[in-house]
Design goal:
heterodimer; A: 423 residues; mainly alpha; Formate dehydrogenase/DMSO reductase fold; B: Rossmann fold; Cytochrome-c3 Hydrogenase, Chain A, domain 2; five-stranded parallel β-sheet; two-stranded antiparallel ribbon; 34% helix; 9% strand
Chain lengths: 423, 388
C-alpha cells in the first residue's frame, strides 16, 4: 500500500540527547554567552559594523533572510486554507514550528542589535513611536505576528502532548481546544495579512535605500518581489526540512504531498523569474548586468542558481524523485536567500568606500541563534506531534501506547485528527 | 503735553497703527520669552494693554566715550517705522545725537528734563566713563563727564548702561587704557545699574528693560555682573544655529575654506560663543533672520564679556566648559570595515558544514519515487535503532 501522511506523528522512541542535539546546544550556549559580551562591550567591539554600515548580518541575515525561510506558515497556509490544497494540511505543523522559530529568533536578533539597549523600553510606549518609519511597521508587525498567530498556531501540538501525557488533564485540554477552534479563523486571517505586510515592508526598506542599492536589485517592485521570494523560500524550506527529517529519522515520505509542494514552488519560482526579467528589461536596469563588476557577477550567480533550481524542480515534478526534490529545494533556498541578502548587504553601498564583513563574534551569535532554533526543532519533533508520519507508523504507535501509557504520540484511536485546528 | 498721555493715546495721536504696535509687542515677547513680568503675560494683547495704559517713560540718554554705535542700533532698524515706533513708545527727552538743539540750548534742555522728571526718569548711559586726570578726557558743557553723570544719576530712578563701554569700559578701556575708562557701575552708587553689554547690544533688550520698569514697576532679575538674565543668562554656543556642526565635528579651519563656505562651526577660527553670555544666537539684529556676526560667517569676539573680548586673542580658541558634545555622537568620517580573519574562517566552515551535511543527507534520500510497500512495515524505525 502507498504511503500517505497523517498529521502529527512524532518522532518516536528516539533518544533526545544525541550527538547532533548536544552539538547544536553547545553552539547555542556559546552564542548566548557572546550575547552577554555584546551587551556589556557594545556593538563596536563585538561586531564588524561601522557608522557607515549599520546593517550587520543580525538584521540582514537573521531577520531579513531567515524570516523568508520562516514564511512557510504564510505560504503553505495560504495554499492550504485559501486555495484549498487539502493535502498540504499535514505539513502545516512543520511549517508553523519552523516559522515560529525563525521569527522568534529573528526578533531576538533585532533586540540584541539595538545599539543602546537602555533605550529599548521606548518600544513599549506606542505614543513615542515614529509612525513614519517602515522599520516600525516591520518591528511591530513581526512582533505581533510571532507572538499572536504563530504562537497560537503552535499551541495544538502542546495540547496534544498534554492530552497524551497527563490523562487527568484531558477536560482542560478539550476546553482550551474549544477556545482555539472558536478563535482560529481570526488568527488564521491575521496569520496571512501580517506576513504579507512585513515581508513586503522588508523590501520597502531597501526600496527606501534608493541608489545605495545596486540598480539590478533596486526596483519599485522590490516589496512585491520580496514577499514573493518569501513565499517560495517558505515552500522550499519546508520541503527541505521534511526531506531531511525523513532521511534522518527513517520516516516514510508521502510523495503526493511532496510533489504538490514541489509543483507550487516551481510555479512560484518560474513566474518570479519571468516577472523579474520583465521588470529589469522594461526599466533598462538589465544593462547593469553586463558591466564587469562584482555586482553583475553576484546577479548572474543568483539568477543562475534560481534557473538551475527551477529546472531541477521541473525535473523532480516529472520523475517524482525525492532526491531531486531535495536538490531543487536546496538550490531554490540558496538562490532565494542570495536574492534576499544581496540588496541588504553585498549590493548595498551606504557610502563610497564603506565596507562590511561580519566579525567572528557577530557570526557566532548568529550561528548560536540558528543552532538554538535547530536544537528546539530537534527536541520538539521528538517530543511533540509535529512532523507528519505514515498511517502505518501512527497505528504502530497507538499499539505501543496501549501497552506503555504515558508515551507521547497518539492516545486513543478516535482522537487522531480530532483537533480540527491542528495545523 | 504728550507726557500726560498714555502710550496708547500717544500712539493714536501720532498715527501709529494698532497693527505696528502689536508687532512691537510680539517682538518684545520674543526678545524676553522668560524672566520679565511684562512678557510673562498670557498674550500679546495683554502686553499691549499693559504698555498702552502706562505713561510714556521719560528717558534721558547721556553720551560718554563712545562711537554712537548703540544709538545707531536703536535708530537703524530694518524699517524706519520701527525706530519711530520705539521713539513713540518711550519719551526720549534728552539725546545729543538726535536732538536739534546745541550749546546752551542743549544744556538747558538737559536741566529741564532732569528737573521735570526728577526721581522718575530712566537714565541711559552710552560709552565708558574716563576717570583719568579727574575726568578731563571728556567734558560736557565745560564740566567733566563724570561729574555730570553723578549729578544726573542722583536724580534718576534707574540707570541703564547700554553697550560694552558703559557696562565695563569697552574699547576705551583696552590696555593700556590711557583715559582710565571704566563702566558706569563703578562710578555710580546708590542707584540700580542695569548693564546691557554688547557692541552693539540688541535695542529690544533696552526696550524690554525700560517697559518692564514703567509698566510693572520693577527691574528684571540680574546676573552677578548686572546683566538682565532674560537676555544674558545663556551662552551663544547653547543656541547657536551652527551648533550641530560643532557637535558633529565639522569646523571651518580657515576663512574661505570649504567648511567656511558651507557654514560650518567657526570655533576653530576663534569663535568666543562658548564663553559669551548673550542672546545674539536667538535674537538677530535689525529684525532680519540670521543678521549677527556668526550668521555672517564671522567668529564671535565675545563683546559682552569683560574678560574675553580684549583679553583673549581674536583667533584664539576658548576652553569649552559646558556643555561639551557627548562622546556618543558619531564622528564625521566613519571608519571603514574590514574582513576579520575569524569571520572569514567561520563563514567558510559553516558554509562547508551545511553544504556537506546537505549533500551527505541527499545521498540517503531515495533517488526515485518510493515504491508502495507490501510488507506492512514501511518504516525501518525500531525503538532505539537510531542514534539521531
Amino acid at each position: 500500500m502507498k504511503d500517505t501522511w497523517q498529521r502529527d506523528v512524532p518522532v518516536f522512541n528516539v533518544p533526545i540527547w544525541t550527538r547532533p542535539f548536544k552539538f547544536f546546544c553547545g553552539l547555542a550556549g556559546l552564542g548566548m554567552i557572546l550575547v552577554v559580551y555584546r551587551e556589556i562591550a557594545g556593538l563596536g567591539p563585538a561586531s564588524g559594523m561601522t557608522d557607515a554600515y549599520a546593517w550587520g548580518i543580525w538584521k540582514t541575515f537573521n531577520t531579513m533572510v531567515l524570516t523568508g525561510l520562516g514564511s512557510g506558515a504564510f505560504a503553505i497556509g495560504i495554499a492550504a486554507w485559501i486555495f484549498n490544497k487539502k493535502n498540504l494540511h499535514v505539513v502545516m505543523r512543520t511549517a508553523v514550528l519552523t516559522s515560529f522559530l525563525a521569527y522568534a529568533f529573528g526578533l531576538c536578533m533585532l533586540a540584541i542589535d539595538v545599539g543602546r539597549p537602555w533605550n529599548f523600553y521606548w518600544f513599549f510606549v506606542p505614543w513615542h513611536w515614529n509612525y513614519h518609519s517602515p522599520l516600525l511597521e516591520v518591528a511591530v508587525c513581526m512582533t505581533v505576528y510571532a507572538s499572536i498567530p504563530l504562537f497560537l498556531e503552535n499551541i495544538p501540538p502542546i495540547l496534544d502532548f498534554v492530552y497524551d501525557r497527563w490523562p487527568d488533564q484531558r477536560p482542560l485540554v478539550k476546553k482550551l481546544d474549544k477556545v482555539i477552534v472558536a478563535g482560529f479563523p481570526y488568527v488564521v486571517s491575521l496569520a496571512y495579512v501580517l506576513p504579507a505586510m512585513h515581508q513586503s515592508s522588508l523590501g520597502a526598506l531597501m526600496l527606501l535605500g534608493g541608489n545605495r542599492v545596486y540598480p539590478l536589485w533596486q526596483t519599485p517592485f522590490l516589496p512585491l518581489l520580496y514577499v514573493w521570494a518569501a513565499a517560495f523560500l517558505g515552500f522550499a524550506f519546508v520541503t527541505t526540512t521534511l526531506l531531511f527529517s525523513s532521511m534522518m529519522w527513517n520516516r516514510a515520505l508521502d510523495i503526493d504531498v511532496m510533489a504538490e509542494l514541489n509543483r507550487l514552488t516551481m510555479w512560484l519560482v518560474g513566474l518570479w523569474l519571468v516577472f523579474r526579467a520583465i521588470d529589469l528589461t522594461l526599466r533598462g536596469s538589465i544593462l547593469a548586468a553586463f558591466r564587469f563588476n562584482i555586482f553583475a557577477a553576484l546577479f548572474w550567480i543568483e539568477i543562475a542558481i534560481l534557473i538551475y533550481g527551477w529546472s531541477k524542480l521541473r525535473e523532480a515534478g516529472n520523475t517524482r524523485s525525492p532526491r531531486t526534490m531535495f536538490y531543487a529545494a536546496l538550490l531554490v533556498l540558496v538562490g532565494g536567500m542570495l536574492y534576499r541578502f544581496n540588496p541588504t548587504t553585498t549590493a548595498f553601498q551606504p557610502k563610497a568606500g564603506a565596507f562590511y564583513f561580519p566579525s567572528a563574534i557577530e557570526l557566532l551569535v548568529s550561528i548560536g541563534f540558528m543552532s538554538l532554533g535547530i536544537a528546539i526543532f530537534l527536541y520538539a519533533a521528538k517530543v511533540l506531534p509535529i512532523l507528519p508520519g505514515s498511517n502505518e507508523l501512527a497505528r504502530k504507535m497507538e499499539a505501543q501506547q496501549a501497552t506503555q501509557p504515558g508515551i507521547s504520540g497518539f492516545a486513543a484511536a478516535p482522537r487522531a485528527g480530532q483537533f480540527a485546528t491542528g495545523d | 503735553m504728550s507726557k500726560q498721555l498714555s502710550i496708547a493715546e500717544h500712539l493714536q495721536a501720532s498715527g501709529v497703527s494698532r497693527r505696528s504696535f502689536l508687532q512691537l509687542c510680539s517682538t518684545l515677547m520674543a526678545t524676553a520669552p522668560f524672566g520679565l513680568a511684562l512678557t510673562g503675560k498670557k498674550s500679546v494683547l495683554q502686553i499691549a494693554d499693559a504698555i498702552g495704559k502706562t505713561k510714556r517713560p521719560s528717558v534721558i540718554w547721556l553720551h560718554f566715550q563712545d562711537c554712537t554705535g548703540c544709538t545707531e542700533t536703536l535708530l537703524r532698524t530694518s524699517a524706519p517705522d520701527v525706530a519711530h515706533l520705539i521713539l513713540d513708545v518711550i519719551s526720549l527727552d534728552y539725546h545729543e545725537t538726535i536732538m536739534a538743539a546745541s550749546g546752551a540750548q542743549a544744556e538747558a534742555a538737559l536741566h529741564k528734563a532732569v528737573q521735570e522728571n526728577a526721581g522718575k526718569f530712566v537714565l541711559v548711559c552710552e560709552g565708558s566713563i574716563p576717570t583719568g586726570r579727574d575726568g578731563l578726557y571728556y567734558e560736557m558743557g565745560g564740566r567733566p563727564g563724570i561729574q555730570v553723570l553723578k549729578e544726573v544719576a542722583a536724580q534718576s530712578a534707574a540707570v541703564i548702561a547700554i553697550g560694552s563701554c558703559a557696562s565695563w569700559g569697552g574699547v576705551p578701556s583696552a590696555d593700556p587704557n590711557p583715559t582710565g575708562a571704566v563702566g558706569v557701575d563703578s562710578v555710580i552708587s546708590g542707584k540700580p545699574v542695569i548693564n546691557l553689554p554688547g557692541c552693539p547690544p540688541n535695542p529690544y533688550n533696552l526696550l524690554a528693560v525700560v517697559l518692564e520698569y514703567v509698566t510693572m514697576g520693577k527691574l528684571p532679575a540680574l546676573d552677578e555682573v548686572g546683566r538682565p538674565k532674560f537676555a544674558y543668562e545663556r551662552v551663544i554656543h547653547e543656541n547657536c544655529p551652527r551648533r550641530a556642526h560643532f557637535d558633529a565635528g565639522r569646523f571651518a579651519n580657515a576663512f574661505g575654506d570649504e567648511g567656511h563656505r558651507k557654514g560650518w562651526c567657526l570655533y576653530k577660527l576663534g569663535c568666543k560663543g562658548p564663553v559669551t553670555h548673550a542672546s545674539c544666537s536667538t535674537r538677530p539684529f535689525n529684525e532680519l533672520p540670521n543678521c549677527w556676526p556668526i550668521g555672517a560667517g564671522i567668529p564671535c569676539v565675545g563683546c559682552t564679556e569683560k574678560n574675553v573680548v580684549w583679553k583673549i586673542g581674536t583667533f584664539q580658541t576658548v576652553p569649552i566648559h559646558f556643555p561639551t558634545p557627548p562622546d556618543t555622537y558619531p564622528p564625521v568620517y566613519s571608519s571603514i570595515g574590514k574582513v576579520s580573519m575569524g569571520g572569514a574562517v567561520l563563514v567558510g566552515a559553516v558554509a562547508g558544514a551545511i553544504g556537506g551535511a546537505a549533500l551527505m543527507g541527499a545521498k540517503r534520500i531515495p533517488a526515485s519515487e518510493p515504491v508502495p510497500a507490501t510488507t506492512g512495515e514501511p518504516e525501518a524505525q525500531k525503538p532505539g535503532s537510531s542514534s539521531r
